[in-house]
Specification:
The chain has 195 residues and is an alpha+beta fold. The chain has helices spanning 10-24, 123-131, 149-154, 169-185, and strands at 30-43, 46-54, 95-105, 108-118, 139-144, 160-165, 189-193. It has a single domain (10-77, 97-193), classed as L-fucose/L-arabinose isomerase, C-terminal (L-fucose Isomerase, Chain A, domain 3, Alpha-Beta Barrel), CATH 3.20.14. This is L-fucose isomerase C-terminal domain-containing protein.
Length: 195
């Protein structure tokens, strides 16, 4: 389990992912990202609205293209971290992801969960995105399955989104539905988004 900041229910989401993915034999490395912004961009599978997810600190090397070799540590921006510290940044590898967020509404726990793909963009596009935000921080470029930008923001209750990879699209679907059922059994109100 990996996270950098405290956000409503992020640790709960991370624990559910780690335990369920471990039981299913899927990757357990998960992290939260800030849901920043997005734009229409070309990638290997076509052209879509591609979100930029970024977190102010570190992401698991298993999420980065080339793992540890594709990761680097940079000094945190003094504006946000005046006493220093380093990041562990990289650009997320392409692959099937499950995204989720757990939040409190009207005194009850809710989970939004859905599918997507982390995609690689051109070097120029990735550089422009890094330069347009905080290049010291790790980033994921993601297409969310069946969820428009406006739909995503209409239900966005926190600044963060939890992400985890799966070995395949079929595995990701299985893990998503299993986690949705687990959350429901634990008393959460679950919304499967866009699938």
């Amino acid at each position: 389990m990996h996270f950098n900041e405290v956000d409503e229910c992020a640790a709960l989401d991370g624990i559910l992912i780690q335990r369920l993915h471990g039981a299913l034999g899927q990757p357990v490395e998960n992290t939260l990202h800030d849901l920043w912004w997005g734009s229409v961009a070309r990638h290997a599978d076509g052209e879509d609205f591609v979100w930029l997810f970024e977190i102010s600190g570190a992401a698991p090397p298993a999420h980065h293209e080339d793992g540890w070799a594709g990761s680097e540590s940079l000094r945190q921006p003094p504006m946000f971290f005046p006493f220093g510290g380093g990041t562990l940044r990289g650009v997320a590898k392409a692959g099937d992801i499950i995204w989720s967020r757990i939040f409190v509404s009207n005194g009850a726990l809710h989970m939004d969960i859905g599918r997507g793909q982390a995609v690689r963009l051109s070097e120029a596009e990735e550089r422009a995105r890094a330069d347009g935000t905080n290049k010291e921080w790790p980033m994921m470029n993601a297409v969310l399955t069946g969820v428009s930008r406006n739909q995503m923001m209409a239900r966005h209750k926190a600044n963060h989104i939890q992400v985890v990879y799966a070995h395949s699209a079929k595995d990701a679907d299985r893990a998503m539905y299993a986690r949705a059922k687990l959350a429901q059994e634990l008393g959460m109100q679950v919304t499967i988004c866009g699938v």
